[in-house]
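Can anyone check this?
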Amino acid sequence: MKLLHTAYVPEGEGPFPTVVAIHGWGANAMDLLGLAPILHRGDALVLCPQGPLALADPQSRMVVGFGWFPLAAGRPPDPLEFAQATGILGDWLDEALKQYPVDRNHVVLLGFSQGGVMAYDLFLREPSRYAGLAALSTWLPPEIADRAHANEALKGRPVLLIHGTGDPMVSVDQAHASRDRLLPLGVSVTYREFEMGHEISPDALRALLEWFEDKAFGMVRPSLIVPGA
């Protein structure tokens, strides 16, 4: 199955530092694309895949959004359904990295809510492929973390967790548990909480932008922007 996606490609020839932004339950490929003009000052390539699971309104039967795998309250993802979703996303990513002018040394995963679970899985399976991971309003299932304990490539990799203290969808306790599962893996964890719900508040956005410049993209510098030019 081929995934629909949107892309923001900076001006110039590249290769460009790249952000793979994975949306959450009920959203679509446009949901996180609005971040593109401000991530790395617009000098990053941003790829936004759309989940394969169409979600329909029960009354109108119209598609209202997309997801990555079925959700069941209080239960972990079904292993087979989750494996199918991660396989589809992984295949898409392999092709996208060939199709676009990507700087392979600076590919960062960004996942929101259910998209964060997908990003965790990609990152922990093959950490050497990624310069970092930003996990927003999401959770790390223990079964995903358990697979990563022996991977030396995780050592020192930057990971950002941002969560809202009033998140009604994914409790802040789940964010704490995710942080605690990451720490033994040796990654460089930055954890930030904000007074917000299931969202990206202005303060959270500032923290995200700072992390990209200070941690994820390291010495990659965007083009000089001259005030008033």
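Reply from J.R.: I decoded it. The radius of gyration is 17 Å.
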